[in-house]
């Protein structure tokens, strides 16, 4: 878990918290992540990496037909345009975020999460880099000056933490990402962030 406080909107004693569950493989998680400051000003964000392909909905493989996959690409471009965000669908799509997520946990432990998180989403959804590959994730971490992250992608305790995050999310009813929690309330989708903001407003009252 990694916490970041967004500026504005609340004093320290009433600072509400939102859990943000994400996978770098999810373009909608990318859209949510880059929108956090605008959509949820003043919130304390708990960043929780979870493995999308570890959810039951993905247990038998990628649950997308060719027509649905084609539509998702069109929809992503529309959503990015609505938000004024650059988005480039990678050649290797769908993406497997396993190694990038392990890197996120390593970066959290190293106290270097913020830079890693932004760079990894940019690499996947703006720079066309194949983050499904271990060597690509390691290269990005190394470029960021994080050799300790690059070296930790197969560390057993990192694997265990990602698995635990995903299992805990499943027990809470999570089936995809981005997912947000405000206390026990769950919200799914980057287009539900106005509802998250409303719940946060009530939490901070």
How would you explain this protein's 3D organization?
By secondary structure, the chain is of the alpha+beta class. 48% of the residues lie in helices and 12% in strands. The protein has helices at residues 27-39, 66-83, 98-110, 113-125, 134-143, 147-150, 156-171, 193-203; strands at 2-5, 17-22, 44-49, 179-182, 185-188. Strands 1-3-2-4-5 form a 5-stranded mixed beta sheet, with helices on both faces. A hairpin with a 2-residue loop joins strand 4 and strand 5 (185-188). Helix 3 crosses helix 7 (156-171). The protein is globular. The model is unreliable at 4-13 (pLDDT under 50).
SSE order: EEHEHHHHHHEEH
Subunit organisation of the chains: single chain
**Morphology:** globular
Mean pLDDT across every amino acid position:
90
Derived structural class: alpha+beta
Based on CA atoms alone, the radius of gyration comes out at: 16 Å
List the strand order in the largest sheet. Answer: 1-3-2-4-5
Count of alpha/pi helices: 8
Report the strand count. Answer: 5
Biggest sheet architecture: 5 strands, mixed
Give the low-pLDDT segments.
4-13
* Helix share bin: 40-55%
- Strand fraction: 5-15%
Notable features of this structure?
5-stranded mixed sheet; globular; 5 strands; 205 residues; single chain; alpha+beta
Outline of this structure?
The chain is α+β, with helices and mostly antiparallel strands.
